[in-house]
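Exercise 7b. Backbone tokens:
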């Protein structure tokens, strides 16, 4: 199971850090990803970190502002979000799976999902 937390209300330009704790297994053998879904829109890719570690891969809309990281010892992944904008407002979901690289941006590639945490950025 995945449990996401850390969402909230923040002003434009502010920061939030989301956490996603994995239980009942280990996250270290999975690619961990973040997606988001704004009202009336489809779920969209935000970032992923391969199980092998290394730097994350990001959507162009968040590149340079968001940083994904993972602590395999704690079975937890994080999404540090800086310079937040109103268009970042959405429910953020963490996900775990074993996609091949070419499909790692697709929500259908992930088996396990957290319940989502609301991020609201006020203008």
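Sequence design result:
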């Amino acid at each position: 199971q995945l449990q996401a937390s850390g969402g909230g209300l923040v002003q434009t330009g502010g920061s939030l850090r989301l956490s996603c704790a994995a239980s009942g297994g280990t996250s270290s053998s999975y690619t961990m990803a973040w997606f988001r879904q704004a009202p009336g829109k489809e779920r969209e890719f935000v970032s992923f970190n391969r199980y092998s570690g290394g730097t994350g891969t990001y959507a162009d809309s968040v590149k340079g502002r968001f940083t994904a990281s993972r602590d395999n010892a704690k079975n937890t992944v994080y999404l540090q979000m800086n310079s937040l904008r109103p268009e970042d407002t959405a429910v953020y979901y963490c996900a775990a799976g074993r996609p091949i690289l070419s499909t790692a941006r697709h929500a259908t590639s992930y088996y396990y999902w957290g319940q989502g945490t609301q991020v609201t950025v006020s203008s």
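Instructor comment: The mean pLDDT is 92. The radius of gyration is 13 Å.
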